[in-house]
Task: structure prediction
Amino acid sequence: MTKFSDLALDPRVLQAISDAGYETPTPIQAQAIPHALEGRDVLGIAQTGTGKTASFTLPMITILGKGRARARMPRSLVLAPTRELAAQVAENFDTYAKHTKLTKALLIGGVSFGEQDKLIDRGVDVLIATPGRLLDHFERGKLLLTGVQIMVVDEADRMLDMGFIPDIERIFQLTPFTRQTLFFSATMAPEIERITNTFLTNPAKIEVARQATASTTITQGLVAFTPSRKDRSFVEKRAVLRQLINDEGETCTNAIVFCNRKMDVDVVAKSLKSHGFNAAPIHGDLEQSQRTKTLDAFRDGSLHILVASDVAARGLDIPAVSHIFNFDVPSHPEDYIHRIGRTGRAGRMGKAFTISVPSDGKYLSAIESLVKMEIPRVALPEGMDLANAGTDRPREERSSRSRGKAVTGASGVAAAATASRRSTAPKPRQSRWFRPRPVDAPAAPVEETRAKPREDRRGGRERREGSEDRREVRDERRTGRERRDERRDDRGNGGGSVMGMGDHMPDFLLRSFKIEAPAKDEAEEETPATGTEA
Ligand code: AMP
Result:
């Protein structure tokens, strides 16, 4: 088996690898590093989690160790599709270049141009950037790309999804044609193939196994159910999600919940929080500082549930995630692989649950044909009464509120969110894992998010980078009616009501014909009082 010491890396790099506790290179590292050190172009078809970042970082540090940085002319360039990924690459450089004097700059949106300009002016060996921000610096005349000897394109398939390919082509053209190119993509779409044919010279092609087929440490499960009413799908999925998390008990040490749309990320996170779960959202529309804070909290274990969009979580290196919950079946089958690949890493065990409703059938088939297996079906958590799942407040309270009376009684677990309005607490049913937030604890960081003018809002391209993923935006275009119906349910006054019946709805009218409702809604009993969710 190849060892790092067999790889002709700079001794200072070997020392840093050993400091980091790594002994043997991963397959992509063992195969890519020798070619990269020879100065050859590399085309790596590999996903995150395979060790691909080090497969380009280690040879780059070794090669760059021999020269010196010049003002405004970076010697190497790494392009990543999102700020988080770029920041992650920068962290890798910090780790592996710590015994060298190499300098780096990270050019991402949400950080002031001034600071970044200063670094570039001084001269950097490694420039790590998102494509939009890099071109903004270039257009401001602050940056010359003619000194780039090594250029890395990371997660090219995601660049394609995000519409960055024209930018990438332009950046390629701004760098010398003699440069060495290290190009990584999880898949080889025709457009990606075209780019590699145009800009790479006789690359060493290295392909490592797909994560989903390689990782046998992930237990997958699919909870397929039919909502009691079509327009209650969103509400009932949230109830299923809560129940699934609770049922996993203490084995669920931390989890990422994936939603297809940014706006659902916010609502699901808020809903989980209001039910006493320690959850926060992350998606492309949040302020960069907020995103960083949330990710740091998830990494250090102080945040247990990260509710995420695909773009925000793609490629993020969070080593020990015990559970993945797909709140939505992803509409792009490869996203399923990326999502579940966030767990079961480095030989650890992981579980990935997907919640699906009948309208997901087409997407589900695409996923199952991609992963070449049927995802094992998991029964709906026992005793779930979906017909009443959307009620976030005890029934009496809803009635009195809707009649305009003052509310005095209340719930406990959502107390942090509603403490100012409510004081006493009914007993929620709690799983062992369930950790109610103390009343005086600060609310999860997302609450602080607000729109404030950002420096990176200046340019059109930056605006695009801020909105991150065109696909997400497209996915967000739901019918107004669908959203309105959901909002009504979220408020709890549509979930358990029928037009014209006022507050005195007989229970039997609310029951589903498909799922037999137990006498008392368990979900409702455990449900804390909340404010409006939507
Ligand atoms: P990446 O695919 O670059 O996101 O890396 C995934 C994870 O693997 C990161 O946590 C790395 O720190 C880790 N890693 C990278 N190289 C090795 C290695 N040779 N042995 C063990 N873990 C590694």
